[in-house]
Structures are given as C-alpha cells and as structure tokens.
Known about the structure:
mainly alpha
Amino acid sequence: MVNRDLLTKVINSIPETHRPLAEALQGSARYTISNPMLSLKKSNITLRMIVRDLYAKEMQKDGTESELRTLLNNKHFIEKIKPRRMYLLMNLILKMTEAQSNDLIDTKAAKIVLDYLMDLTSWYTKQLVTEEKLSLPFEIESLTPSSFGKLDLPAYDYEAAAKWFLIAAEKGNTIAQYNLGVLYNHGKGVPRNLKDAAKWYSLAAEKRDSNALYALGILYQLGQGVEQDEKKAAELYELAANAGNADAQYNLGSLYNQGTGVLQNYETAAQWYKKAVQQGNTSAMNNLGFLYHKGQGVEQNYEKAADLFLQAAKIGDASAQYNLGYLYTKGDGVKISYNDAACWYLSAAIQNHTNAQFQLALLYKSGQGIGQSEEEAIKWLTLAANNGHTNAQYTLGLIYKQQNTTLAQINALEWLLKAASSEHISANYDLGMLYLETGATETAVKWLKRAAIQNHAKAQLQLGLFYLGDEHHLPYYQEALKWFYAAVSKNEAEAEYQLGLLYEKGLGTSVNYDEARRCYRSAAEQGHLHAQYQLGNLFDKGLGTKQDYTEAFKWIQQAAQKGYPKAQFQLGQMYANGEGITRDYQEAAKCYRLAALQGHTKAQFQLGMLYKKGLGVTQDYTEATRWLKQSMEQSMSEPSF
C-alpha cells in the first residue's frame, strides 16, 4: 500500500508554483494498482521535471531536448546535485515501460518507484527558494499517456530505413545486408524474423563483414533462426575476432572459458579476452579479471584482477562494479573498505544488478560502510527480490518475520513462499516454522520435509520433534527416529539427545542403553546440557554400563554449571552422599539452593533439612521451616498425573 500520510506530506510541501509537479506525482500514486504502466509514465514525467529543472538552474543551460541519461551523465551536473536515486528511477521506469504491451507490469515495481520518487521529491522541494518557479514550463494536461512514447526516446524511422536497406542489400551492398539483418533480428521497421535476419547476416558474412560474422555467430550459438551449432558459432566468432571485432573476441574467449563449441582452454580464453580488452571491451575486462582472480589460464594476481574490474567499473560496467565491491569486502587485491564496497555496489545496483542490490541491502542492514537502515535494506532487497533473487526473497522474508506484526507476517509468508518455491532450502525450513507457529501443521510439515530431504539438519530435527507428538498429535516414534537419525549425521546435538532418549526409553525401537549412552555422549561433548545430565544419570544408575559415580559427577557438574536445576539438585545429592566426590554438605547446600531458587521442590526440601540439622549451613529452624513449607506448597500446586 502507498503510504498516504507520507504522500500527503510530500504533496503539501510542493509550492503552488510547481503545481504540474504535484499533479504528476499524484497521478503516479493514483494508478499504482489500477494501471501500473500509467503510474510509471507519470513517475517518468515527475522525474523529468525535477532533473531538467535542476539542470537549468545549476548549469544555466536548457536541457529540454536532452535525454535524462545524457543529463545525468554530465560530470559537472552530477557533482553539483549528487544524483541520489535518479539513476535508479530512470532505469526502473525505462525498463518497465519498454516492455511489450501484453506484458504484465508488476504493481510492486510501480510502488517502489513511487516510494523512491516521494523521497526524491521531498529532497528536491527542500532545495527550492520561496516563490521560485519551475525553470521549464510544463502543462500537465499535455503530458498524456499517448504522448509518453515520445518521452526521452530518440525517434528513428525504421520502416523507411528498412526499405532503403533492402534496395541496397539486393544489389549486394554488404553494409546494407548487415543492417537489414539487424532490423529483422530486433523487429525494427519490419516484423521480427530471425530466419530473415540469419539470411541477410549470412550474405554479408560471406564477404567477411566482421559485424555480420559476429551477429551470425550469436544466432548459431543460441539456435535462433538457424539450427543451434555452437561449433559453427565458434568458427564465425574466430573469423570476426581475427578481423578485429572486439565483441567477437570477447564471445570467443567466453566459449573457450566455458568449453562450449570448443575444448575448454583458459589460456586461449585469456588471450582473446586480452585482445578485446585492448579495444576497451568492458565485458572482457570483467571476465579477464575473473581469470586473474581464480588463477585460470593466467598466474593468479588479485591486484591485476582489481585493476581490470576498476577499468570496466569506471566505464560503467555493472558486473565489474559489483565484482570490485566484492573485492573490497574481502580485501583481495585491495584494502578492505566497506565504504568503497558500498559505493561500487550502489553503482551496480542502480543499473538493476540484482546481486549488487542484494549485497548493498546487507550493508544497509549491518551498517557496514554505509548508514545502518533497515528501511533502505528492505527497499533494495525488494528490488532484487522482484527480479527473482532468491536470497533477497529469503532475507526479506526473515526481516518481515522478525517484525512480528500481522502485516509483516503476511509479507514474510509471501517472500518466503517465493524463495521456497525456487527451492531455497533455508526458505523451505523457515516457511515451515512460520506455518508451525500459526498452527497450520500439515502445511508446515510439507515445507519442512522439502528442506529435510535436501539435508537441512534443523528441518530434520524439527520433523523429529513434531513426530514425538503433543496434546494435538499422537506420537509416531519410528518416523521421529528416522528424522533424528538424518539430523545427527550433520552433528545436530539436539537430535543426538532426542535419539538418546528414544533409545533409553525404548520408543520406536528396543531399549538400548549402549546406543543411548553413545548419543548422549556425542551431544554432551558438543555442550548440550540435557545430554550431559542424562549421560551422568546413566553412569549414576549403572544403566547399560558399570555404575561409575566419578563419571556421573563429571557430566552432571557440567550441566549444573549451566544452570540446569535438575542437574544442580543431583549434584547436591552427590555432594551430600559422597558419590563421585568427597562428601561436602557445604557444597551440597550451595547446589540445593541454586536449584531451589528455580523452584525445584526436592531441592527446596533437602535445603530445608540441611538447615534443620545444621549440615553445611548454620542450624536455623526459621530457614528450615521456610524452605520445607515452600517445598510442600509447590508440590501441592503441581499437577498430578
């Protein structure tokens, strides 16, 4: 839902002199649900007004005829305004509005754009001087949806171009043949027809036109308009690459990198990447950087990798910007700097690089290198999540789950479902737990099993606990045994402990004290206090082993030191009876008191008796009566089964 209070506040902050801006923003908000495409168009209008007004005032130039991207790439202009989220908005809007008319426009994208746009507008209005007018006159009524197709988009008469290219192509003009192939490839001025594209590319390729060779290679690699033939694609790329085509050099390097259509050879891949790098191909810079980072085909060199990523990143390559940000978080080839990482992640994120959006969100969440802000983290996660980034969907689900409100739980369910449906293992588990908390046990078990069969230890443990039964479900011990067994293979201490209980009590299996002791010991050595107590009890009672008070004392003491009242009482008993340790009533009293303060009735009784007899404490009938009475009252209040 649109934050109406915030929207009203932002609208009210826009002066009457900027009425067109207010109307455009209101239009964006009005259509977010009913007509997301129109909402995005209105957002585009709002963004244009702000950017062009700022440009006119800051640069003292008219930017009416310039595209937004041109204005926002002006270094001097950027230095003056610090473009905030303008790039992000521009890319989001153009991406969504360039979709075909039959594509479903995501309402959430329109809402996210509006959210950022309100923030931008709020910032913009604070820069305005009283009675200041828009530098560029706009009549909002003239900016109708039908006119939007012309906004910031260069106009080309592709139909006329296609006619002239056809005349020249049929006469054997190589450039025209290639250009006609391009038009058919992209459906510009002619209906899209990949077979015709391949036909015209082939004619130009026969004359060794490097662009045509490269374009035809792509069609063969993808199997578009021709039968897929990756080996043929490699041959075409090599012809174009030898003719100096940088894109072909990059693609050929990628084929050798992946072993597609050719035998995998990292050294050859590096050689072709280097040739493309010399011509400024940013994708080649990025991939060659990867080879240096991994030491594949070249000697491993983090500094060289960082330098290549930096070259491409400065030119604007989003993947390189992301990779450079990653290096700054790891300190590979550069000094660790979360500030620099955040800057490069942001540069890639505003170009819709989903991994960068996700990593930037994590930095906002942790406050590393950038001001901590869960709100900003959610915004970037939402962008990545809407683009299908499963880790972003999962993280978003967890954040909403932790907010613990009705609306947040609905959002948590939505995002965890999306991540889980994409086979995100942990999302399956957390979704199952969310359903379990709400009482939807059948649905919970379904999702927990999806995680469990993919070896998620906590899901396996949770299934085991579920099958132990409760007041609403009968136990199914054999199924519990099965899932606990699966979890213990991942060193899940709680599963080891539960498995030990089943063996000790003979539930779902025969009584087996040896197996119980083995399970308890495994969990106890991992610090599981209940397992330490149970293991001590086996030695204390001599169950399945020779009675050994010394070994019993060792394990029960560890559980007692962690505050477990049963273990504290048992340790008191051992001190009082001299079992596994020299009899010491003073230590016994200390242990009884710790357990008694936690409501352990037997410990309260024994502490009372020590006060009555003066053992380990100064004889005190008042204290004795207090503890004995407390023990009796608590025993009477406890349910009897």
